[in-house]
């Protein structure tokens, strides 16, 4: 039997069971990595001291919604790419939607702000370390997801690995946001996105060697 025929047979015989098993396996890898990432933020960076006050503001929830939406769509996409038939469906194009919304919000805020404040809104006071910290915080989630995916059967290795990296980066960003006190949409659109994208690129670069089977 040819490899393509075998993959098609495996994919068709037990699709519901396979979907549940994939979700559990990926969820376990994600959860294990997230626990370590939370510990890194708490023990290394610390939770922002004004967290309770910040939770009463819209900008606080804006950046969490951005990271969470990217993570949710990334999980839906990687759950499909980890199957032998490896098609992403609608989740691929939808992954760009949160970035589009955040970019539009950033432009709106910059357009209405005084010119002398625009650079501050884009750079904040942590632009030099934000993306780097997101990559570090995301690293355990990255490792957890790739550990999980090694027991699955992705066939589009580079694409699947890039998406796994984006999922790790978005989840790590969500956790990092409990430390970060930046709240301007331009800052989030630039530096949070750069951190997420950096983990995605790392996944794309390492994926073929990490997931080879």
Provide a concise account of the structure shown.
With 213 residues, the chain is mainly α. The chain has helices at residues 3-13, 15-45, 51-54, 58-81, 91-94, 97-112, 115-123, 130-149, 157-176, 185-210.
Describe this structure in words.
It is a single chain. With about 210 residues, the protein is mostly helical. Helix content is about 75%, strand content about 0%. It is built from 10 helices and no strands. It has helices at about 5-15, 15-45, 50-55, 60-80, 90-95, 95-110, 115-125, 130-150, 155-175, 185-210. Helix 4 packs antiparallel against helix 9. The protein starts with a helix and ends with a helix. The model has no long low-confidence stretch (mean pLDDT about 90).
Order of helices and strands: HHHHHHHHHH
Contiguous helical run count = 10
The coarse overall form would be globular
* Helical coverage, percent range: over 70%
Average pLDDT taken over every residue: 89
User: Cα distance, first to last residue?
Assistant: 18 Å
Q: How would you classify the helix and strand content by structural class? A: mainly alpha
- Rg is 18 Å
Percentage of residues in strands? under 5%
**Low-pLDDT sequence parts:** none
Give me the count of strands.
Answer: 0
Can you summarize the main beta sheet? none
């Amino acid at each position: 039997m040819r490899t393509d025929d075998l993959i098609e047979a495996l994919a068709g015989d037990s699709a519901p069971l396979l979907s549940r098993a994939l979700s559990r396996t990926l969820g376990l890898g994600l959860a294990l990595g997230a626990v370590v990432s939370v510990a890194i933020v708490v023990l290394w960076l610390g939770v922002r001291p004004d967290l309770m006050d910040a939770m009463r503001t819209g900008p606080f929830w804006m950046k969490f919604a951005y990271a969470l939406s990217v993570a949710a769509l990334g999980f839906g996409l990687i759950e499909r790419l980890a199957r032998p038939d490896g098609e992403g469906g609608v989740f691929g194009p939808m992954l760009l939607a949160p970035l589009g919304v955040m970019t539009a919000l950033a432009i709106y805020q910059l357009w209405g702000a005084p010119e002398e404040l625009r650079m501050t809104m884009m750079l904040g006071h942590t632009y030099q370390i934000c993306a780097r910290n997101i990559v570090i915080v995301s690293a355990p989630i990255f490792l957890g997801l790739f550990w999980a995916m090694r027991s699955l059967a992705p066939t589009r290795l580079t694409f699947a690995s890039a998406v796994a990296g984006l999922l790790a980066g978005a989840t790590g960003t969500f956790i990092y946001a409990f430390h970060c006190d930046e709240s301007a949409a331009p800052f989030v659109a630039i530096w949070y996105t750069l951190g997420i994208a950096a983990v995605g690129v790392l996944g794309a670069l390492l994926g073929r060697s990490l997931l080879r089977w």
